[in-house]
Amino acid sequence: MGMCIAAPEKHLRYIHQMSDTWKVFFILSLCLLLASYILIIFWSRRHWHNHPISRALQAHVQPPHSNWRSVASHINTEFRRIDKFATGVPGARVIVTDSWVLKVTTYHVYMAAQRDCHVTVTESRQHQLNPDSASPIQLLTLRVHSINPAVRPFDIRLNSTEYAELREKLHVPIRNSANVVIRQTISELFLETFQAHVNLNQSYSLPSGQEVEPCIGCMQMPANTKLVRLCHVDGADVETECEQCFCRPMWCLSCLGRWFASRQDQQRPETWLSSRVPCPTCRAKFCILDVCGVH
Ligand SMILES: [Zn+2]
Ligand SMILES: [Zn+2]
Ligand SMILES: [Zn+2]
Predict the structure, then answer these.
(1) I want to staple 180 with a disulfide (CB 3.0 to 4.6 A). Which of 24, 124, 207, 237 is the partner?
(2) Helix or strand or coil: residue 166?
(3) What does DSSP assign to residue 221?
(4) Could you give all domains of the chain from N- to C-terminal order, each with its CATH number?
(5) Residue 246 pairs with which residues in a beta bridge?
(6) pLDDT, tens digit, for every residue of 146-178?
(7) Distance 227 CA to ligand 3 centre (A)
(8) Which residue has the higher pLDDT, 235 or 10?
(9) CA–CA distance, 215 with 157 (Å, rounded to integer)
(10) Which ligand is located closest to the Cα atom of residue 230?
(11) How many whole angstroms from 237 Cα to the centroid of ligand 2?
């Protein structure tokens, strides 16, 4: 008998509790909806003047830009160029254009003008993420500070193998505060060795009237190398496979070094310095002793 009375009571109480929870949910969702409406109305006032992205853009309004729309269109123009540096997963994308450093996360867009930036390497982490390669991946954290007080500092992360590419795009010096040893790609490391060896070779003087042209590889540096068959000593019995190249100076030292590295057995870096590769223009074989700096 007691059971029969207790059961409907329990049932009623359950419905009562349910409706309470439901009420709370209803009021909460209404409040959230209202709050988001108010936020959107607030953001959209004065032509979206208060929106977080437009506020971030407003921090960069200075001549030649008269308003944040002009800053936005400048960023857009640079963003469309194919030579921008871009890395990272969609939720934390890092983009470096000719004059901007951007970090695009799910909820925020960080931006700093390159001319206002200080960039510092603050951290390095090793990850054994890639099962295909024997060497672990090194992830670098760089802090971007701006002298613009309206821009808050932010961190960008990238793989150490992308560091050289970033350095090329970033026109500001990068400080290395934590003495992080940056493990670059083997080709980048080789490039340093290549340049050091070439500097030991004798240099080549341009014939009078001939001027140094821009490198046809990068179009930026002067073409400051000339291939001269120096490893072949007249009178010596040692016959080398090197051939004389008759090309005028056409390549800069880093482009020639990259070419040299790209023609090597990638699995055996220890053989790189002693091997021969064809001239990128006329295909005459040369070795590292034959590369002369142009003066
Ligand atoms: Zn070049
Ligand atoms: Zn040649
Ligand atoms: Zn040679």
Answers:
(1) 124
(2) helix
(3) S
(4) 83-184 (2.30.29), 187-293 (no CATH)
(5) none
(6) 998 888 999 999 988 888 889 888 888 888 776
(7) 9
(8) 10
(9) 32
(10) 3
(11) 25
